[in-house]
Amino acid sequence: MSTEDRARVANIFDVARLAGVSHQTVSRVLNDLPNVRPATRVRVEDAIKQLRYRPSTAARSLVTRRSRTIGLITTGNPDYGPSSILLGFTEAARNARYLVSISSMLETDVASMRAAVELLLSQNVEAIVLIAAHRGALEAIQGIDLGVPLIAVESSGRVGFHSVSIDQFRGAYDATSHLIALGHTRIAHVAGPDDSMDATERVRGWQAALSEHGLVAREPLLGDWSPASGFARGLELPPEFTAVFSANDQMALGLMHALQTRGIRVPHDVSVVGFDDIPEAEHFTPPLTTIRQDFAELGRTVMSTLLEVILDTSVAEAAHPVPTLVERESTARPLAAD
Fold it and tell me: Which of the residues in the chain have pLDDT under 50?
């Protein structure tokens, strides 16, 4: 290819010429249409990469009558969990050759939600994904006539939505069961906000594990996901508890700091388990035992569910990938058990 050819933006005819096919064949490859031989598809894709060709989204939608654009609404503060879900989903969408138009909102009242939905619908999105940090987000969108499919990333399993989420109940159950297996019988819980569906499911998992072993679940210590709230709850932790399950890693960090200021050693005096496995968790002092959520897998699950809905294929029951326990140095047997 000449220097002059490289200097201008490539078009579909350049791709066709380099691949040795017609421009109609290139169009079929771009739009994932059938009746293209595998070897031909590979040649076209290689030519697209070599020329750095970027097809027009508008032109493609005229051919397929599909915009290949998904609307994504995020609600609440940019906490680790929702932000990681956003990244996981946008990566999965990109791999599926979809564009994502994002609308982020702190307030989840009906008027704000309606404005976000109308903005996305004006971009001809094929579906909307809602990352619902709080119950209010579901309630705000439930009364709006969308006209396109809705996928909700939420853990309550509310009827009327295609819901996808990581199994928050199971993660909390496994975290608490780990502490029980070590010999702890007095296990406190630093919970997330009351209006968080994930926080509610984690409370339920903690309670279920304790109940299964005949142990008492005291009233949870309420936090707001921040290290500061974990610190405050750590200053208040009654002396009878030998272990704490924190509903996220940031509150666990604040909790461990508070215990240190009180002269309470982790894990010698009190064991601590977090939730999320943020990148910093393995560098806490001591490194934090926690529940790891696979947000990349969740993103792929949301995207596959969305495609089933868009393509009107049979949609499986709500998907709930199971998180995993990561054992580090913040948990140990209670002193009385040694």
Answer: 1-7, 62-64, 338
